[in-house]
UniProtKB/TrEMBL annotation:
SMART domains: REC (SM00448). Residues 5-120 form the Response regulatory domain. This is Response regulator receiver domain-containing protein. Keywords: Phosphoprotein.
Length: 373
């Protein structure tokens, strides 16, 4: 409705002429002379106010107002009754059928202008309040939608933290997009091989080609109603962006980059864990090999120690049995015994060093065990 449009309804042409003289300079005015014509013109003209005569043949003003209020396309039009009588009963009857003001004939210029000014203030305030309610309702709805969407995103992030397989991660991403009502295809780069996934089952050859052709077109590439999100290891193609809902469209644009970014980080974590697991296996193999070599070396050292002990025992026994028969004087015998004893003591010192070497080997083995753990 245009704010300054008024429809005057009266079966007396003279009354309509008076109204026209008063209002035609300040308002967009139309006049009709029957209730039936009023119902027809009001739906098409959509005035802000109808000046409606009460006493008319065939259909009086009250019935006209009743039918106006029953019609959704004219129910919001403000009605001011115009009557030669202004009793309390007539005014109440007018209010009962939906009228908002009442003016009694004959009326003057100022009276009509003042009443209309007051009505238009009421209309303006009503529109302002309706707009505020609409804005508040829209804001509340958007807030609830955003809250629900953020809940979905938080749940998605919590769920993917337990996923350790790239294929399962791709399926979780598609399921998350489905919760927003979106049809999607995705491409995952894992160990230099690309795998494709689709909410519709299998990606078409054309979609697979699009992933390749648009990989270097930037982070976001839009070709309505589609949008492609590109990250180094994940690309996500949304096939049905909600173009008919600008609010949701804006939210989805904000959400998808964050969701794909988080998914990419989880994919990197999965691949890093795989690499660490492989490295751990390799380290275990190296540890087993080093331990085997240590054990072999310790065996050799132990064998060497046992052989040295046997040789020195044999040498000592031989000297003890033969020296008394060599005809040596006492000083010579003591010299030889001291020399042999000194040699044995030096050998024992070397054996202590060998023990230290074995101890060092065991410490290295223990350190490697801790690394593996």
């Amino acid at each position: 409705m245009v704010a300054n449009k008024i429809l005057a309804v009266d079966d007396e042409p003279y009354n309509l002429e008076i109204i026209e003289e008063i209002l035609e300079e300040n308002y967009q005015l139309r006049s009709v002379n029957s209730g039936l014509e009023c119902l027809k013109v009001a739906e098409e003209f959509q005035p802000s106010v109808i000046l409606l005569d009460v006493s008319m043949p065939n259909m009086d003003g009250y019935e006209v107002c009743r039918q106006l209020k029953e019609n959704p396309s004219t129910a919001e039009i403000t009605v001011m009754f115009v009557s030669a009588r202004g009793t309390v009963e007539e005014r109440i009857a007018g209010y009962d059928v939906g009228g908002e003001d009442y003016i009694v004939k004959p009326f003057g210029n100022n009276e009509l202008q003042t009443k209309l000014a007051s009505l238009f203030k009421v209309i303006e305030n009503r529109k302002s309040l309706e707009q505020q309610v609409e804005d508040a309702t829209s804001a509340a709805f958007n807030a609830m939608s955003l809250s629900s969407e953020m809940g979905t995103i938080v749940q998605f992030i919590e769920n993917i933290g337990t996923i350790d397989d790239p294929d399962e991660l791709a399926k979780a991403l598609i399921q998350c997009m489905k919760s927003f009502g979106l049809k999607t295809c995705s491409a995952f780069l894992v160990e230099n091989e690309v795998s494709h996934f689709s909410s519709e089952g299998i990606c078409s050859p054309m979609v697979i080609e699009l992933f390749e052709l648009l990989k270097n077109k930037g982070r976001l590439y839009e070709f309505s109603p589609r949008i492609l999100v590109n990250y180094p290891t994940i690309s996500l193609l949304i096939l049905n962006m909600p173009l008919d809902d600008p609010e949701k469209l804006g939210r989805i644009r904000d959400h998808i980059c964050f969701i794909v970014s988080v998914t990419e980080q989880q994919l990197k974590a999965i691949l890093t864990a795989r690499t660490l697991q492989y490295q751990k296996m390799q380290l275990k193999r190296a540890f087993s090999l080093v331990r085997s070599r240590f054990e072999e070396l310790v065996c050799v050292l132990n064998l060497s120690h046992e052989m040295n002990e046997a040789i020195f025992r044999e040498l000592q026994e031989e000297f003890e049995s033969r020296i008394p028969y060599m005809g040596l004087d006492e000083d010579q015998e003591l010299y030889i015994f001291h020399k042999v004893d000194d040699t044995i003591q030096k050998s024992v010192a070397r054996e202590d060093l060998l023990t230290d070497v074995k101890s060092a080997f065991f410490e290295i083995e223990d350190d490697l065990s801790h690394i593996l753990e």
